Every structure is written in structure tokens, then in C-alpha cells.
Amino acid sequence: MATKLIELEDGILVEAEVPDGEAKPISTNDVKKVKSTFAQVKPILVSISRPIAEAWQEINQDMKIEQAEVEVGFNFEGEGNLYITKEKAGASFQVKLVLKPSQPKPFEVIIVNSQGEEVNRSSHEVVSFTEDFGKGIMLEMVSIPGGTFVMGSAENEAEKDNAEAPQHEVTIQPFYMSKYPITQDQYQAIMGENPSHFKGGKRPVETVTWKNAQKFCQKLSEKTKKTYGLPSESQWEYACRAGTTTPFYFGDTITTDLVNYDGNHTYGNAPQGKCRAETTDVGSFPPNAFGLYDMHGNVWEWCQDIGHENYEGAPKDGSAWETGGDSKVRVIRGGYWDDEPGNCRSASRLWGDADFSNDNRGFRVVYFPGV
Asked: Of 304, 302, 283, which Cα lies nearest the Cα of 292?
């Protein structure tokens, strides 16, 4: 028997075995069939919430399951193999699904009142996978569940802008987003350079244009054989809010103990704080309920969308808005290290020239299973 190992999305490995007499270990068409079959079960694999054997029995009635050693759940440890035999014209071959899910990682989420005082702290878990860039440099991608949310700012939200209206419902499909803004170490590993003004391997890369960010996504996709890109503006806001409807995912306000912004300015009844006047290492401040860090402040983050003056006619399916407007003008989100807190709100939006770079602009990436 000859074996060919095929790497699919999400780090799934498919090992196909066919008789030695065949000209190729497995033909291109057969690879596509295997990949298509596995794609059917992918939503279940991504959620990591049901026994894999049960999933295969339900979705692939024509397959004979020979062995199912493990169930994949939030208490999963180690690796598991699922062997499946499927008939093929004149022969049969075996497919082995090797699962290497990450252990869910616990973290705490903080909520504050309008004075910036902590009023609640709750424990959450996140499921993620990691890309290894070598030399100890990793890119952690966090699983973002699908859902429907209201995009834009409420009528009574302080410092709201007309660009944040009208509020509208958007439905988001599950995807993965980088846990942090792309760091200088990660950018250097993929692009071979570091254009940042505030140097530091764990700091977010900045002084990058939208086109630089696009090139990074292209090279990352080529390296990993996955499809990476910038988030759509609606994906970014959905991920930032993480189920909240308040101005910030921390609640009604922020303080400089929670976010890197210009603490000489305040939002709501919060006190003044520090003005660090530079970027900080990613992950220096608490995350939101999806396990994402630095969605408020530190650096503005490029999105895929063309800039529009408001949400009239905006997509409601989570896709990037790339019709109308000027394609040379792209959206940025999140505020930055020397910004006022009102510009760091979940709903706050700005846009700029796709060829312009500044020491306040960075980005993070998203990955779509099955694309």
C-alpha cells in the first residue's frame, strides 16, 4: 500500500492509502472527494462539541467506521484517530482523520461601571489553534462563534457619530480571528522586515498600509495553505463586542488599567489615567469574552471594507462592503495609544488612504474554515 498525507483546514490531516499497483498514491479527484466529505463535518469539528464517531455516522451513512478511539470535547486530552474505509472503483482505500484540538484555555473577563470600577469578574474558555512560524514565533487563532448582533451605536451613546448609524442587524458565520494584533515578530517572520516606529517583538506591528496588510495575508496563506485575510468591518465589531451592547466590552467606560489610550481624556465618569504615548506589548490588558486582546486602543486595525459615510446600504451577512465609495479608502477600527477613549468604542469607525502608514495603524487577521 502507498500512503499520501494531505493537510486540510484547521490542522486536520488525512492519510489515504491505496494499492501499490496504482500509478499515483491517490488521484487529484480522489483528494477533492475526501476533502469535500470532510468539509461536511467541519462545523462539528470546529465547535468541538460532539463525539466524532456519532457525527460521521449521522452525516456519512455510506461509510463504515472501523475504529473511533476518542470523543472530542472540552475535556479532550492528547490526540485521537478515526479510521474510515470507503469503497473506490476496483479497490478500497483507508482514510485516517487525525485530530489535534487545542485544550480550551481559561481566562477572566472584567466588567466595570460608569466610574471605571470593577463590578464583575467571570471565567471563560476559548478554543483556538496555532500556526508555528518557527524560532518560537506562534500565531494563535481564536474560534469566534457565529451569531446575529446589532451593529452601530445606540441613540443615547455618548460621543456617537453619524458614521455609526443607522443601527442594523448583521448575521455572522463562525470564523477564526488572531488573538492579538499581528506582532512585530510575526510580521518579520512572514515579510522579512519590520517597519514599526516603536520597536519590540511583542508589540503590535505598525506603520503598515492596508496594502502591506494584504500582502502579509497573501504570504501567510501561501505559507500555511489556508485562506487568511483582513476582517470585514462587521466581523471586527462583532468580535470586539463579544456579546456586549455597551460602548466598550468592559462596560460603560474604560480606564488606562484596561486599555492603552491617552488617559488625559476620559469617557463617562471614569478618572483620568496614564498617557503612555507609545504602543504596549499585545496582551498587556484583559481580554473580552471571546478571548481577544487589544480590540480597544493600542493601534487602529485595518479592515477589508471600503470607507462609507454611514451604514445606509451596508451588507447584513458579515461580508466586507467593497462596492461604492473609493476603493483606495479603507476602514480602520479600535482607536490607538494616543487617542481619546471615545474613539476606542466598539462602534467607533474611521477610514484612511490604503497607501498611508502611521505609527498608530496595525491589523489582525481572520481565517475561514472551508475557504
From this structure: 283
Q: Which domains does the chain have, with CATH numbers?
A: 2-99 (no CATH), 105-367 (3.90.1580.10)
Contacts of 33 (CB under 8 A, 6+ apart): none
Please report the DSSP string for 23-70 in residue order.
SSSS-HHHHHHHHHHHHHHHHHHHHT-S-HHHHHHHH-TTSEEEEE--
* b/e 196-211 (16+ beta carbons within 10 angstroms → b): bebebeebbbbbbbbe
Mean predicted confidence (pLDDT) in 279-295: 98
**Average pLDDT of the chain to the nearest whole number:** 80
Decide: 172 and 234 in contact? Cβ < 8 Å.
yes
Q: What cell does 242 get?
A: 463579544
Residue 30 pLDDT: 41
Q: Which three cell numbers stand for residue 139?
A: 500565531
Q: What is the pLDDT of residue 103?
A: 58
For residue 181, give Cα distances in angstroms to 140, 210, 253, 334, 353: 10, 14, 22, 11, 20
